[in-house]
């Protein structure tokens, strides 16, 4: 076999020509390859494949300059298509994948995330007519949360599905009026509220005029590239085999943008539909004005409306002399959304890189540690020095794959300890990696607290990933040996389950620390209410106007006592005592019991959507609605049933609850129990998981001649609970007093207490809300 060196030229029998460096018979190094059809590649080679930096020209006048890998467009580069469109960004295996910017022939521009050639993730699309959308995408269509601003100034902020407004949101008109409500497939559907711009009849008399002016500005434009994007990128030549005989054969790989076409009627005509709807409401409002005096300047007019598939079927006009807190927050948010939304792109890109880097790092370290034979942990497996460190360059290395993130440094803390913890929690390494590192990826959650941490949820809801402060990571690593011993000794621990601790360092950027935890609300049952309970009354309430089903409420918001099976109650408080004693030994304070409630009769939950202190009062002690009045207790028909545990029929719902014994129930003879739930099936009862109880809410107290009558409303509920926020250590008293002095606070008035007192207060509070049945 002929061995060619550098600077040689070879002409193949099919007319292809290569000139450059060789390794044996294969192009290797720098060289230029010209195909007989006119395609030309000039750049770096590695063992017969285009790998490294290079540039390729196609006969169609399309060009690409950037990174190649294994014969594919792979990495970062600039692609100019024959139609004049320009893409600059990340590519993977010939497809746009990662962060990129595309300029279309009609001057539309998209900046954001791509997935296998389609717009997916966070991104910004600017139409040539001035319309702008910033938000999330799926399969090249607007899906999820996003903001659309039309060129005439109208703006919608809310949820989308398949390119249409779908879900809750608000629409801000150019004149400053707002509509808050819900949409279904692009049409208003359900109740909503319209807030005019200004007050009194001045707005109403000008409403139709303004509507006609806006309508003139919104003639549909069908020039969007989203209608016609189905261009095909020219063939990319690559070798079919690494074994090259007498002739150097090349294959081809054809690929396309795959960005689906999308009808852009919504981009302007939907704004017209909004205006037509507003004109209709102005007619209704005008008829009201004809019989009323002008509203005082210090009053606000609001229109409560109800729509059915885009048709206004009901309207009620309200005069509000004082705006509610919720209304103020809505209007404040609406006014600020223009300013805040346009900054989201940078933050979205940074979050994208963090997610991608996190997945790459976890896949690498779990894959590296899993083949190591299982053994007991040693003292050397703990501490900050027990770690795996690795550099992940974007181009890849001998130990790491090429990727679409930016260069980053990865650190995995105590990998052997967390590997054993995952085994204790019965987590399969492959399932763990697929849940966090699978193609469906991670989704970002809004932070439920004041910590400012980022939260990510795995696509199957099994795992929560939270960013940590440096001090919190130190606490975790310091307590890890005792934590490991505690969870190993107690299968039923309620303390947060930790599966990994990691750090990402972006080049020229700050270090970001993460911890992977189990999601205790990973269940097939809907969680109707969430509470974060500390056993304190200091600031532990939620503003009434901010409460909805997704709100995490606090101690003073809890309006229930819970009664459960005697054996379940004993098991719960036995473990609470063990867990709080462990936290006390580690000087941990400020932890919480996270409590989730599933109400078995959601059709009775209308009152639950109101703030706790506004729950309806019973009008008469003799009335019983949806229940039976027995003595002084209003009891709803029971819908939960404890039965003897049977391993076979039990629901195999995945979650972080696999480890832990099945609890025994007193009501079935102290046998292991399953929970039967109508319409759901059979669920295994574990500590903190699928625990049935009755939630008692006191409705009223009344006194008769000699007795006091108490009336309760009782709901069947399923409880989910666990101890969270365990990474806050007690500060020394001198530091507290010094802080108090500097801020002119009385040291006795602050809520920080010693671990022993905190633990005692915590358990005492839980005993009140979970009283033992007589």
Automatic annotation (TrEMBL):
GO terms for cellular component: plasma membrane. Residues 209-237 are annotated as: Disordered. Pfam families: MORN, PIP5K. The keyword Cytoplasm does not apply. GO terms for biological process: phosphatidylinositol phosphate biosynthetic process. Residues 348-770 form the PIPK domain. The keyword Ribosomal protein does not apply. GO terms for molecular function: 1-phosphatidylinositol-4-phosphate 5-kinase activity; ATP binding. It comes from the Eukaryota. InterPro entries: MORN (IPR003409), PIno-4-P-5_kinase_pln (IPR017163), PInositol-4-P-4/5-kinase_C_sf (IPR027483), PInositol-4-P-4/5-kinase_core (IPR002498), PInositol-4-P-5-kinase_N (IPR027484), PInositol-4/5-P-5/4-kinase (IPR023610). It catalyses: a 1,2-diacyl-sn-glycero-3-phospho-(1D-myo-inositol 4-phosphate) + ATP = a 1,2-diacyl-sn-glycero-3-phospho-(1D-myo-inositol-4,5-bisphosphate) + ADP + H(+). PROSITE patterns: PIPK (PS51455). Keywords: ATP-binding, Kinase, Nucleotide-binding, Repeat, Transferase. Its EC number is 2.7.1.68. CDD domains: PIPKc_AtPIP5K_like (cd17302). This is Phosphatidylinositol 4-phosphate 5-kinase. It comes from Sesamum alatum. The lineage of its organism: Eukaryota, Viridiplantae, Streptophyta, Embryophyta, Tracheophyta.
């Amino acid at each position: 076999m002929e061995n060619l060196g550098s600077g040689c030229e070879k002409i193949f029998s099919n007319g292809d020509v290569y000139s450059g460096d060789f390794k044996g018979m294969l192009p290797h190094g720098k060289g230029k390859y010209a195909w007989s059809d006119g395609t030309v590649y000039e750049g770096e080679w590695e063992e017969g494949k285009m790998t490294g930096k290079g540039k390729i020209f196609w006969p169609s006048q399309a060009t690409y300059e950037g990174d190649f890998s294994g014969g594919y467009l792979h990495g970062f580069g600039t692609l100019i298509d024959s139609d004049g469109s320009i893409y600059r960004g990340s590519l993977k295996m010939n497809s746009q994948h990662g962060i990129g910017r595309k300029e279309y022939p009609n001057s539309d521009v998209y900046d954001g995330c791509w997935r296998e050639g389609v717009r997916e993730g966070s991104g910004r699309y600017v139409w040539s007519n001035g319309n702008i959308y910033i938000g999330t995408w799926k399969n090249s269509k607007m899906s999820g949360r996003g903001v659309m601003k039309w060129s005439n100034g109208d703006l919608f902020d809310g949820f989308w599905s398949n390119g249409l407004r779908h879900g809750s949101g608000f629409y801000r008109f150019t004149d400053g009026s707002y509509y808050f409500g819900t949409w279904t497939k692009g049409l208003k559907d359900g109740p909503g509220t319209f807030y005019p711009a200004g007050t009194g009849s001045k707005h109403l008399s000008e409403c139709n005029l303004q509507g006609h002016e806006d309508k003139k500005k919104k003639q549909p434009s069908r020039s969007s590239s989203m209608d016609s994007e189905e261009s095909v990128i020219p063939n990319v030549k690559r070798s079919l085999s690494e074994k090259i005989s007498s002739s150097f054969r090349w294959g081809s790989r054809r690929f396309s943008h795959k960005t689906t076409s999308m009808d852009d009627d919504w981009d302007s005509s939907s704004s017209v539909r909004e205006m037509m709807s507003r004109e209709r409401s102005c007619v209704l409002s005008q008829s009201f004005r004809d019989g009323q005096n002008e509203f005082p300047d210090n009053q606000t007019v609001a229109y409560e409306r109800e729509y059915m598939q885009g048709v206004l079927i009901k309207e009620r006009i309200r005069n509000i002399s004082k705006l509610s807190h919720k209304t103020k927050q809505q209007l404040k948010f609406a006014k600020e959304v223009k300013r805040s939304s346009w900054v989201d792109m940078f933050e979205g890109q940074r979050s994208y890189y963090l997610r991608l880097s996190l997945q790459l790092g976890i896949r690498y370290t779990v894959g590296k540690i899993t083949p190591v034979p299982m053994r007991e942990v040693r003292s050397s497996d703990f501490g900050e020095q027990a770690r795996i460190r690795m550099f992940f360059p974007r181009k890849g290395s001998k130990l790491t794959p090429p990727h679409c993130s930016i260069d980053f440094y990865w650190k995995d803390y105590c990998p052997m300890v967390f590997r054993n913890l995952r085994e204790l929690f019965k987590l399969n390494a492959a399932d763990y990696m697929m849940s966090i590192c699978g193609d469906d990826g991670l989704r970002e959650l809004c932070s439920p607290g004041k910590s400012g941490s980022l939260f990510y949820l795995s696509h199957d809801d099994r795992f929560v990933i939270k960013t940590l402060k440096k001090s919190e990571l130190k606490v975790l690593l310091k307590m890890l040996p005792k934590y490991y011993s505690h969870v190993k000794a107690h299968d039923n621990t309620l303390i947060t389950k930790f599966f990994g601790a990691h750090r990402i360092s972006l080049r020229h950027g700050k270090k970001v620390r993460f911890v992977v935890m189990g999601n205790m609300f990973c269940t097939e049952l809907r969680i109707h209410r969430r509470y974060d309970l500390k056993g304190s009354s200091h600031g532990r309430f939620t503003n009434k106007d901010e409460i909805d089903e997704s709100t995490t409420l606090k101690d003073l918001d809890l309006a229930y006592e819970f009664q459960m099976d005697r054996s379940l109650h004993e098991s719960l408080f036995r473990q609470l005592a063990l867990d709080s004693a462990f936290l006390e030994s580690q000087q941990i304070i400020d932890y919480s019991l996270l409590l989730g409630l599933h109400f078995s009769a959601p059709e009775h939950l209308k009152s639950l959507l109101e703030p706790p202190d506004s729950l309806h009062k019973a009008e008469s002690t003799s009335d019983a609605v949806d229940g039976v009045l027995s003595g002084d207790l209003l009891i709803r028909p029971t819908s939960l049933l404890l039965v003897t545990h049977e391993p076979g029929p039990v629901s195999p719902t995945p979650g972080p609850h696999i480890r832990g014994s099945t609890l025994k129930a007193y009501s079935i003879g102290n046998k292991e129990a399953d929970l039967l739930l109508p319409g759901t099936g059979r669920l295994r009862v574990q500590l903190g998981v699928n625990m049935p109880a009755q939630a008692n809410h006191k409705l009223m107290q009344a006194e008769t001649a000699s007795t006091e009558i108490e009336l309760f409303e009782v709901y069947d509920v399923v409880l989910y609970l666990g101890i969270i926020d365990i990474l806050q250590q007690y500060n020394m008293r001198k530091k507290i007093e010094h802080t108090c002095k500097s801020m002119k606070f009385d040291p006795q008035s602050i809520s920080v207490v010693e671990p022993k007192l905190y633990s005692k207060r915590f358990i005492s509070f839980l005993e009140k809300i979970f009283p033992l049945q007589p």
